[in-house]
Specification:
Elements (H helix, E strand, L loop, with lengths): L2 E6 L3 H12 L4 E5 L12 E2 L1 H10 L2 H7 L5 E6 L2 E6 L17 E2 L2 H14 L4 E3 L3 E6 L4 E5 L5 E8 L6 H6 L3 E5 L5 E8 L6 E5 L9 E5 L6 E6 L10 H11 L7 E10 L2 E5 L3 E2 L2 E3 L5 E2 L7 H20 L9 H22 L7 H4 L12 E2 L17 E2 L2 E2 H5 L4 E6 L10 E6 L8 E5 L5 E5 L2 H11 L2
Parallel strand pairs: 1-2, 1-10, 2-7, 4-13, 10-19, 21-27, 24-25
Antiparallel strand pairs: 3-6, 4-5, 8-9, 9-10, 11-17, 12-15, 12-16, 13-14, 14-15, 17-20, 18-19, 22-23, 24-26, 26-27
Helix pairs in contact: 1-4, 1-7, 7-8
Length: 465
């Protein structure tokens, strides 16, 4: 074997997975067919649950430093401001949910932060390595590249996007729909003569012209331009064409766009891979599910795929867990991805507001085979739910969770003897948890809840390594 895990694709999914594996001591290599990280803004919203994930992975401070809050939308008509538009339903910061609203960071900068953290942990990305095909057997996977030597790994994770070469090689189909037949132009630009205090929205002027939005990208001097076109339009992403679109749909002159830094066309669709695994190969991120950008769910769902898979690969490769643990990746993540695709599509079509549904804090794994709720009538927090933040015995819970370990939260109950791989936090009261014992998985979800010490011991013996 050249490595334990080969990750194809150095987007947010691949980099987050690389970080999680590196901190678990798993030998992993991320390969990327391009010669550098992706240069565009694309997925620019970090949802509250992903901010919690980034807290655990050790990158939240850097993410907060390079991003900012979303500005209020400003609607324009005939060169005049005609009203504000609130993009999100407001939410308050609470003890159990310290991050309440999305944080804007352009995707290229998120990837820079993740890449720096990966390098800090001793991980690496091999650029200019395009995977052409692979063969797998009972022991591992051998991957062929357009240039350079083959790489042999125990497991392969495909995080190479919606047009994944790995997924096509596996023959795994994508089932989905066109969310909107009207294509979009997306571009990162520099603009003069437009303030950075608002997300500027220019409604269609007639039936043949789509909307234009110009959003200041937090932490940069750039704006993200999104322009809608009629179905069947062939979009021109050249700088002159971008300038013409901005001038035609706003009060700005073409030369107000002083620089076009990146541009691409996009056709909103929703699609879900028919399977997230084939043998020793796993699909994650856009390789497994493709979202409309409207709900800000694609990057976030993708990072959480990596977060779910990382601890399980670590347990199998370093902790001695049975390989069957890896079966729970698809079991847990595919239903979540399907649900979030519905949310993304609903937001795009104006059927769902950006708010509670898009923050991803209410997602969980109550139906998972890894979840054991031993109480007959639990009130409030249940096994399978996200483990909330808060204080217990003078310790902040998220501080206790941070790292690759399991954590036992014992509230008003005696904690039993557990393996060294489990950190124990005790206290008399915790309103978000109630009384009892709560065993929190490495990815921040309650795996077991109850009071029966024998049942807890049995769970630990099966799943904690």
């Amino acid at each position: 074997m050249n490595t334990d895990v080969l990750v194809v694709g150095a987007g947010p999914t691949g980099l987050a997975l690389g970080i999680d594996l590196a901190r678990r001591g798993v030998d992993a290599l991320v390969v990327e067919k391009a010669d550098r990280l992706f240069p565009g803004s694309r997925g620019k919203g970090i949802q509250p649950r992903t901010m919690e994930v980034f807290d655990d992975l050790g990158v939240l401070d850097a993410i907060l430093a390079v991003g900012g809050e979303y500005p209020v939308g400003m609607v324009w008509q005939d060169g005049e401001r005609v009203g504000e538009h609130r993009m999100f339903d407001a939410a308050e910061v609470t003890d159990d949910s310290p991050y309440s609203t999305p944080w804007m960071v352009p995707q290229w900068r998120t990837q820079e932060v993740l890449y720096a953290r990966l390098r800090e942990l001793g991980g690496q990305v091999s650029f200019g390595r395009e995977a052409l095909g692979f063969e797998q057997d009972a022991d591992g996977v051998t991957v062929r590249f357009a240039s350079g030597a083959d790489i042999r790994a125990r497991y392969l994770v495909a995080a190479d996007g919606g047009r994944s070469a790995v997924r096509r090689t596996l023959g795994i189909g994508m089932t989905g729909e066109t969310v909107d037949p009207d294509p979009l132009l997306v571009a990162d630009v520099r603009i003069s003569g437009l303030d950075r205090d608002n997300w500027h929205v220019f409604p269609p002027r007639d039936e043949d012209t789509g909307f234009l939005s110009i959003c200041p990208l937090a932490g940069t001097e750039d704006f993200q331009v999104v322009a809608q076109f009629p179905e069947g339009t062939r979009i021109d992403p050249t700088p002159d064409a971008v300038r013409e679109v901005v001038a035609a749909r706003s009060h700005l002159a073409p030369d107000s766009v002083t620089e076009v830094r990146w541009a691409s066309d996009f056709r909103p669709r929703a699609a879900l891979a028919d399977s997230f695994r084939s043998g020793r190969v796993f699909l994650a991120g856009d390789t497994a599910h493709v979202h409309s950008p409207a709900g800000g769910q694609g990057l976030n769902t993708s990072v959480q795929d990596a977060y779910n898979l990382g601890w399980k690969l670590g347990a199998v490769l370093r902790g001695g867990a049975p390989a069957a643990l890896l079966d729970t990746y698809e079991e847990e993540r595919r239903p979540i991805a399907a649900h979030m695709l519905g949310i993304s599509t609903g937001v795009h079509r104006g059927e769902i507001r950006r708010g509670e549904a898009t923050r991803q804090l209410a997602l969980g794994y109550r139906e998972s085979s890894l979840t054991e709720e031993t109480r007959t009538a639990p009130a409030g927090l249940r096994a399978g739910d996200r483990a909330p933040d808060g204080k217990l015995g003078g310790t902040r819970l998220f501080d206790a969770f941070r790292g690759p370990h399991w954590t036992l939260v014992a509230v008003g109950a005696k904690a039993p003897e557990l393996p060294d791989s489990v950190r124990v936090i005790t206290g008399d009261e915790q309103p978000s948890y109630g009384k009892g014992l709560f065993l929190v998985r490495p990815d921040g979800y309650v795996g077991w809840a109850g009071e029966d010490l024998e049942a807890l011991s049995g769970y630990v013996g099966r799943f904690v390594f």
